[in-house]
Fold this protein.
Amino acid sequence: MAFAIEEINKNLNLLPNVTLGYSLYDNCGALVVALSGALSLASGQEEHFLLQENCSGIPPVLGLLIHYLQNVNFTTPFGDQVSFDENGDALPIYDVMNWLHLPDGQIKVQNVGEVKRSGFKSEELTIDEDKMFWNFESGKPPRSVCSESCPPGTRMARNKGQPECCFTCIPCSKGKISKNNNSLECTSCPEDFWSNPQNDHCVPKKTEFLSYHEPLGICLTTASLLGTFICAVVLGIFFYHRRTPMVRANNSELSFLLLVSLKLCFLCSLLFIGRPRVWTCQLRHAAFGISFVLCVSCILVKTMVVLAVFKASKPGGGTILKWFGSMQQRGTVLALTCIQAGICTAWLVSSSPAPHKNMQYHNDKIVYECAVGSTIGFAVLLGYIGVLAVLSFLLAFLARNLPDNFNEARLITFSMLSFCAVWVAFVPAYVNSPGKYADAVEVFAILASSFGLLVALFGPKCYIILLKPERNTKKAIMGRLTINE
C-alpha cells in the first residue's frame, strides 16, 4: 500500500495538487480489534495524526485498504458497503477503493488499480485509467502542468525566465507543418506541396494556367472563334462576288490569301489557352509568327502594287508593272514568310520553348507557363513582324492621297497604324504581367490586331458589296462616275 501511494503521489497526472497519506491500524489477530478500528473509521472518530508539515486541517479519508471479514458489514460515511472477512492472512491482490472530496465538488474514483506481489519480483502497481471517474464537466482530471500541450500544426517556444513546463504554442508558418503534439520545430513541405489550413499535413499545390473553363479563357476563346467565323463569312462573300469590280480591282488573289492568313491568326491564339504542353509551347509562337508574317506580307505586297499601278499610269512608267505580276507577288509573299519560318526553326532547334513550373509569383500555387527558351529568338520573331508592319505603314502612308474614288492605300494605312499601336502597347504589358496573365495579354494582342486588320481592310468593301451595289461598278471604282450617297 505504501508503495502504491508513493507511485500515485509521484504521478502528477493522476491526482494533481493532492498528496496522499495513510494511517495503519493493526487488527492484532483479533476480530474485535479489527472491528473496532473499522467502526471508528466509519464513524469519523478515529485518531488523527499530522503526517506532513505542508498538510493543514484534518485530512479527509481518501480510501480503505482492508482485509475481507466474513459476515461483517458496515456503511461508510459515503454510503458504500464494506464487508470484512475473519481471515487475517494478507491477500496477494488488493482492490483500492477511493473517495475524494474537493472544495469544488466530489470526485469519486473507483477501482483505480491493483498491487500485485510476486516471489521473484518486487511489488508492481498497475493503474487502470479507463475505470476512473472524474466528476467534472470535461470528465477529465485537472492538469498540473504550467501550459497545455501544443497540438499538431504548432511548435513549442520556451518562455525565458520561467520553468521548462511554461511555453507558448506558436502556429507553424505557411508552408511548414508539425504532425505531433509538443513539436519543437516545424518542418518545411516539399517543393510541389503546401501546408493545409491546419498546418498539420502537406497537400499538393494548386496549379494555375489560362484555362478554357475560367471566364477569361472562355471570353478569349469565344473571341477567337468569332473572328475565325467572320473571316470565313467574308471569304465566302468575296468568293461569291469574285467577278465584281470591287473584288477584282483590289487584287483578289492577295485578298483571298490575306483572309486565310487572318483566319490562321485567330486560330493560333487558341494554342495559348489550356494546360501548357511540349507541342503547344513549341507550336504557339511558331504558328503565331508565321501567320502574322504571311498576313503582313500580303498587305505589304498589296501596298507595293498600288504604288506600282500609280507609277505605271504616268508617262514612261509602264515597264514597272512587269516587276509586280502575279508570280512576283506570290514569290515575294513566299520569300518573306520563309524568312520567318527560318527564324522559328532556328529558335526551336537552338533553345526550344517548353512547359515550366513557375513558383516565383505565388508560394502556394504552381503557375504553369511556356518558357520561351531563347529570349533572343522571341525578340527576333517579333522584331521581324514589326519591320514588315512599319514598312507597310510607310508605303501606305505615301500612297494615301493617290487619286482614286476608292483608295485602298488609306485603309492599309489605318490598319497598319492600329496594328503597330497594339503591338507597341503589348511589350510593356507582357513584361509586367505575371503568370497566366502574360498569355492572356499575348492572346488579346493577337485578337485585337487581327480584328483591326479584318475590319479596316474588309469592312468597307463588304459594306459596298452588300449594301451599296451601285458603287460596285467599274466606272465607280475608276472614279468616272459620281454617285450620291
About this structure: The first helix runs from residue 2 to 10. Residues 154-204 form one domain.
